[in-house]
């Protein structure tokens, strides 16, 4: 029985050395996140006031297609039709636009046909729920016609950038989760309990004599509030997204020097 336990421990230590050696004696691997994009298609409605139309607005119905990148860069197309409705229904404009900018603010360039003044071109800026622009009518007596529009387009939600498998996103960086599996640790000693129930331990990895301070993945898996911070690696061992916990792993020497500040990455982390 003792021989079997010794053999199992030796194999586990060998596997963990091969798998994790170098990942805990040095900072976690950090790489730039991978940009991603998404499409946003939406119909919208609005009211538009122009200098030539005075205080009487036109009703606007349109469709907007936007391509949004994870860095906020946004471009796409917009087509709309407007109509006067105060003194009876009268067709206003058919307009097509190309826009480019960030997720909440885009510059626009377009043109179309006005049923009163003929063809036109225009430039505009779209902000959340609003649009400000200037139209040019080459064949009309009044060449320039500024306008203001309010509509139902709040803005676009940019997608989160992607990370490789088993990495987690922190800001704009992908971080390799640190191994926090109790099966990979020895000389485990409870140091403290946090106000949120998390237990903080001092421990050594099987392949190192350096003493670290951190959490145990098995503890997190038993807590519904924190189990999502646990990542199962391809080798079957657990790692932890410390950023989700508002924590960071440290060494016992740093813990003795700075106490809770050495492991807390958020100000609301306190001891129980």
Write a structural description.
By secondary structure, this protein is mainly β. It folds into two domains: 134 residues, no CATH class; 115 residues, Lipocalin, CATH 2.40.128. It is built from four helices and 18 strands. The strands form four sheets. The chain has an eight-stranded antiparallel β-barrel with strand order 2-3-4-5-6-7-8-9. The protein is rod-shaped, with a radius of gyration of 30 Å. The chain starts with a helix and ends in a 14-residue tail after the last helix. The N terminus is likely disordered.
Give the number of domains.
2
What does the largest sheet look like? 8 strands, antiparallel, barrel
Order of strands, widest sheet = 2-3-4-5-6-7-8-9
Number of helices, counting only DSSP H or I runs of 4 residues or more: 4
Q: Can you give the mean pLDDT? A: 84
Low-confidence parts, pLDDT < 50 over ≥5 residues?
A: 1-27
Query: What's the number of extended β-strand segments?
Result: 18
Structural class by helix and strand composition: mainly beta
Keywords:
single chain; 272 residues; mainly beta; 4-stranded antiparallel β-sheet; 4 helices; 13% helix
What's the short story on this structure?
The protein has about 270 residues and is mostly beta strands. It has two domains: about 1-35 and about 160-260, no CATH class; about 35-150, Beta Barrel (Lipocalin).
């Amino acid at each position: 029985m003792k021989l079997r336990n010794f053999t199992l421990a030796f194999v586990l230590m060998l596997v963990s050395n091969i798998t994790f050696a170098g990942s805990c004696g040095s900072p976690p691997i950090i790489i730039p996140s991978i940009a991603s994009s998404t499409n946003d298609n939406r119909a919208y409605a609005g009211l538009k006031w122009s200098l030539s139309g005075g205080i009487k607005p036109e009703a606007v119905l349109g469709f907007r297609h936007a391509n949004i990148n994870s860095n906020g860069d946004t471009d796409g197309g917009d087509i709309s039709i407007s109509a006067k409705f105060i003194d009876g229904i009268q067709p206003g404009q058919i307009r097509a636009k190309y826009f480019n900018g960030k997720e909440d603010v885009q510059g626009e360039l377009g043109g179309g046909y006005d049923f009163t003044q003929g063809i036109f071109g225009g430039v505009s800026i779209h902000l959340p729920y609003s649009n400000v622009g200037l139209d040019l009518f080459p064949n009309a007596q009044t060449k320039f016609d500024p306008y203001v529009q309010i509509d139902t387009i709040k803005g676009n939600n940019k997608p989160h950038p992607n990370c490789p498998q088993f990495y987690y996103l922190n800001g704009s960086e992908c971080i390799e989760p640190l191994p926090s599996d109790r099966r990979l640790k020895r000389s485990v000693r409870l140091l403290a309990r946090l106000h949120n129930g998390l237990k903080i331990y001092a421990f050594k990895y099987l392949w190192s004599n350096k003493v670290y301070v951190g959490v145990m993945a098995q503890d997190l898996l038993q807590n519904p509030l924190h189990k999502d911070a646990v990542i199962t690696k391809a080798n079957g061992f657990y790692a932890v997204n410390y950023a989700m916990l508002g924590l960071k792993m440290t060494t016992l020497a740093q813990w003795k020097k700075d106490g809770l500040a050495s492991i807390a990455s958020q100000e609301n982390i306190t001891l129980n």
